[in-house]
Amino acid sequence: PVARPLAGVRVLLTAGPTREPLDPVRFLGNRSSGRMGFALAEALEALGARVTLIAGPTALAAPRVTEQVEVETALEMYEAVMVRAADCHIFVATAAVADYRPETPAATKIKKDAESLTLHLVRNPDILAAVAALSQPPFTVGFAAETDHVEAYARDKLLRKGLDMIAANRVGGDQGGFERPENALTVLWRDGRREFPLMDKTRLARALAQLIAERYQGRHAA
Ligand code: PMT
């Protein structure tokens, strides 16, 4: 028999990249494949949770979760999360959300007439920070993708955004992070930390899901 510590728990989880349109045929994107988030969504569902996955565009097959909602842009992801956030117990932000979007996408294909082209970008809302700032926030788990000062920047995000946990990974190197099948994580909370060495994202997701379940239950015991 499999232990189901998250039976009856509703989880909302974002995964994958976002696409910010420049014109009808082009977008600004990033290297997230969605693998880490999809694996985590399945691992949490396997622990008994009812997982709603809010996914940006990926090439992955639909994971075994309760519900999957597909979005494209950061603003669409923000809307899809905010209409559901009050109704979940745990929110996990695995998505690589674009921090900026082109202010006004061109209505027609941009022509290559000029020698140079300047894009004007505006800030997207921070979905994770908005959920953590709700008056009765769910248990919030963020990710931090950093190329340097990984733990220091992650701890800053944990405290600044008022999160319950943050899972930090190094990106942009030749191991782990975006696109690859493996990843390594340093998970931080206010008074603790745990290291997960480089391993397959499926295995890593199972270990992280267990830790989330433990910390979530600990919150109620406190
Ligand atoms: O998809 P894979 O190829 O498997 O790669 C996995 C991953 C590297 C994308 C994943 O492990 C990861 O690190 N996800 C977070 C990526 C990210 O955008 O990190 P960040 O440090 O820029 O953002 C911090 C946190 O705020 C994240 O939880 C992010 O989801 C959230 N955020 C950021 C901006 C924004 N506008 N809204 C948000 O919710």
Automatic annotation (TrEMBL):
It comes from the Bacteria. Residues 11-222 are annotated as: Phosphopantothenate--cysteine ligase. Residues 6-214 form the DNA/pantothenate metabolism flavoprotein C-terminal domain. Its EC number is 4.1.1.36, 6.3.2.5. Pathway: Cofactor biosynthesis; coenzyme A biosynthesis; CoA from (R)-pantothenate: step 3/5; Cofactor biosynthesis; coenzyme A biosynthesis; CoA from (R)-pantothenate: step 2/5. Keywords: Decarboxylase, Flavoprotein, FMN, Ligase, Lyase, Magnesium, Metal-binding, Multifunctional enzyme. One of its GO terms (molecular function) is phosphopantothenoylcysteine decarboxylase activity. Binds 1 FMN per subunit. It catalyses: N-[(R)-4-phosphopantothenoyl]-L-cysteine + H(+) = (R)-4'-phosphopantetheine + CO2; (R)-4'-phosphopantothenate + L-cysteine + CTP = N-[(R)-4-phosphopantothenoyl]-L-cysteine + CMP + diphosphate + H(+). CTP binds at residues 99, 109, 125-128, 143, 157, 161. GO terms for cellular component: phosphopantothenoylcysteine decarboxylase complex. Its cofactor is Mg(2+); FMN. GO terms for biological process: coenzyme A biosynthetic process; pantothenate catabolic process. Catalyzes two sequential steps in the biosynthesis of coenzyme A. In the first step cysteine is conjugated to 4'-phosphopantothenate to form 4-phosphopantothenoylcysteine. In the second step the latter compound is decarboxylated to form 4'-phosphopantotheine. Catalyzes two steps in the biosynthesis of coenzyme A. In the first step cysteine is conjugated to 4'-phosphopantothenate to form 4-phosphopantothenoylcysteine, in the latter compound is decarboxylated to form 4'-phosphopantotheine. In the N-terminal section; belongs to the HFCD (homo-oligomeric flavin containing Cys decarboxylase) superfamily. In the C-terminal section; belongs to the PPC synthetase family. This is Coenzyme A biosynthesis bifunctional protein CoaBC. It comes from Thermochromatium tepidum ATCC 43061. The gene is coaBC. The chain holds residues 180 to 401 of 403 of the full protein.
